Amino acid sequence: MRTCCIYAVRMTLAVKQPPAADRVYSHVKQGVLERRYEGGSLLTEGELAEAVGVSRTPVREALLRLEAEGLIRLYPKKGALVLPVSAQEIADVIETRLLVEEHAARKAVPAPAGLVERLEELLARQKQQAAAGDFAGAAVTDRCFHAEIVRSGGNEILSRLYDQLRDRQLRMGVAIMHSHPDRLAKTLAEHEEILDALRSDDAETAVGLVRRHIGWFAHLARGEVR
Known about the structure:
This protein is mainly alpha-helical. It contains 11 helices and 3 strands, in the order ααβααββααααααα.
């Protein structure tokens, strides 16, 4: 018994927390992506240090990393401004997604082994999240659905390029689901259609569906969606 207790204590001590700056970075980034820290919010070092339970030094380090990623802008002696998602950012992401995902959809026919099954699992998960009103979770699964199609092509360079869009996609996805909650049902239906086209080995239909699916966001960026 004593030996087990000593082992348990040693194991507990062996599990170290991530560095303080990493904890602050994760806290703020998750808050921005999930809209707990909305665009236009001003975050102060003191508030973040208290929220995470660290000193101000790692807060500054984390905020510098987040500024380099384009999520915040630092103002000396004031704090960090969470940058809103701009129409230009949406347009740039959409343009890049169309270039990558139309190519990926065409290359995914015939569907590689396991792709259809993975997409079915992701679609089922997204439906559950939609039913529960979990917009943040649904946005993550939405992004995974599209990333699986891109990765199925086996082009590591293209996959890494697409991964660079991840944070922007998640942030935009959550914001859009909150402002257009009816869009989630439409997204699920369109994912089902894309999946059906891949099951049928219909490349041109799959590409057209992806173009229409992503194109809706382009209309949103131009202010054509109400």
